[in-house]
Amino acid sequence: MNSNSKYDILNDAASAIVKCNKAEAVAAMHRGLDAGIDPIELFMNGFGRGLHEVGEAFGKGRIFLPELTLAADAMKAISSMVDMIAQVPRFPSLPLETIIIATVEGDIHDIGKCLVVSVMRSEGLHVIDLGCDVPNDVIIRKALEHDASIIATSALLTTTILQQEKLEIALRERGLKGRFRTMVGGAPVTRRWAESIGADAYAANGQDAAQCALRLLTERMEKNG
Description:
Elements lengths: L5 H13 L3 H13 L4 H21 L5 H21 L12 E6 L7 H12 L3 E4 L6 H10 L4 E5 L7 H12 L7 E5 L5 H7 L3 E2 L3 H19 L1
Parallel strand pairs: 1-2, 1-3, 3-4, 4-5
Helix pairs in contact: 1-2, 1-3, 2-3, 2-4, 3-4, 3-5, 4-5, 5-9
């Protein structure tokens, strides 16, 4: 019998993602909500912890793409539930500025991006998710179409993080670097990498990404008066 203690529910949530079990993940989510656990805490400290373990296992070659895909499916189900629950912005004074987010071209993994999107939306941020394997030209075009304030990109593979650098180059060449603030993240991405390519911010996880976005938007508001 499953325990309804907060500690056990968070552990069960993490375990469900590690086991790539969508049904167990959804059940853990319902148990957590019934027990009065804040959905964002449940998402970050339970499911997010499991997601971190999956990412580390994939990076070390202990699991492979089929398992990663199943874990991503489970995480998407949880992300959808969190998106439905977290409808009230925590920062209503912020203007409704748009964040464009995408997994870079050549990378079909969105397991981490889904977490980032859900946490950002829970903070009241307006996020447009372009999905996976998105060319830089499309990212820039969509950012222009939606008059975005921030462009965030995720890369899970060491071979695809170069697309983040190419995006920075493309923005500078088109004279758009000052128009959009850029954020980068993903398993192989580091703060040093972000600084070396000229990105405006590096986010290590979903909560970090939301806080970085809020900081960038606040700075933009103050600059514009």
